[in-house]
Amino acid sequence: MTPRFTASLSAFESPDPFQPSTSTHASPSSPAPAGSGAFLVPKAVLPFVLPNLAHLDERVDLAVRRAIDVEGLQLSTTKRWRVAYRSLLRYLRTTANPDRFLSGDARVQQVLLEGWIAWLRLQGRSRNAIATYWRGAAALAGRVAREEGLFNPFLLVAAPKENLPQPRYLTRGQAEGLPRYIQNNQWRSTLEARRNLCIFGLLLLAGLRRQEVLRLRVSDVHPLEHTLLIRAGKGRNGGRDRTAYATPQLVTILESYLQARAHEGRTHPELLTSLAADRALGLTALVRIFRAAGRALGYPLSPHMLRHTYATLLRQSGVPDRVAMDLLGHRSLVMLQRYSHVVDGEHAQEAARLELHVDL
In what order do the strands lie in the sheet with 242-245? Predict the structure, then answer.
């Protein structure tokens, strides 16, 4: 039986239900909150009304194509949107009238979106999964609403928050344990050992993103110049190219791996190779490598954790924020601050630097 949910009307203090006035919601004339999926909500908007879910499917397809062709977003991003959208459709179809979400009634839309969150929790989805679904569906709804001149109903409900129980970065000791894990593990071949060390090195010592690592080509690696050319990194309009810089340790790792790669006769253009054949390493194989490493080391491990660790180690090494921002490919210092973390013991260590030049 589908659970029933009641709406809270506290968000609708003004006579116009399409102008929520509480601090947790955006007004139609203000920029949309981060993660809502809309860039700007026009001053004059119409209720979110469409004929039926089939019509919404068509508008979603158009929004996805436009995001790829015009905004230049990665296909992997729009795939996540579609997964979230399909989850929302499954929930709506459990209700008596799925098309009611498209009726333009803001209170009904609020109830249904809150019901979707509750339904996901009843399905056993984690807080992180629910937040990810929400961001994906909101991104699509925001684009459909903007194209049609409609109000984005996702602005009626506060976005679910993620829960990050494990640290988002590694301590220096944990980071130094990664190469030891590679050295001590029994790998099937020299190529596998050197490739896996190369993967960890690119993430930990150059701060690359997961997709940047997988897309990196042999021709983009320049050990003599200590540089890596990152093509079409994360961002709109196809992303932007940037130069990443390899530490001397990473250069040694890259040179060793390239020798093993050539010895095994790998000729495909991508840097990282599959062990089974002369083809590029895939995302599924990369996930398996990190899961195995996490089990062996005794703590959760992901590519993005290593990028956070890289940012934190740059700060601890005294690299200026402006330089660190460029090394990570960030466009603002605010984003850098989200990646660089203060570890246990640093507060006391840095506070001890304060000293008055007087005998006490």
Answer: 221-222, 227-230, 242-245
Concatenating the DSSP letter of every residue in 265-277 gives: T--SSBSSB-SSS
To the nearest 10°, report the CA torsion of 24, 27, 31, 32: 50
Query: Mean pLDDT for each consecutive 10-residue tract of the chain (360 residues)?
Result: 36 34 39 42 74 94 91 85 95 93 94 96 91 94 92 94 70 89 93 96 91 94 92 62 88 96 96 95 94 90 89 83 75 57 54 52
CB count within 10 Å of CB 216 equals 24
The H or E element that residue 91 is part of is helix 75-92
Please give the Cα distance from 158 to 144 (Å, whole number): 19
**Position of tokens 């579609």?**
82
pTM assigned to the model: 0.57
Q: What is the largest CA-CA distance in the chain?
A: 80
Q: What is the pLDDT of residue 77?
A: 86
Q: With H, G, I as helix, E, B as strand and everything else as coil, classify residue 244.
A: strand
- Residue 46: strand, helix, or coil: strand
Q: Which of 284, 282, 286, 315 is nearest to 303 (CA)?
A: 286
Beta bridge partners of 31: 40
Distance, CA of 347 to chain centre: 29
The one-letter code for the residue type at 135 is R
| 178 φ/ψ angles, rounded to the nearest 5 degrees | -65, -50
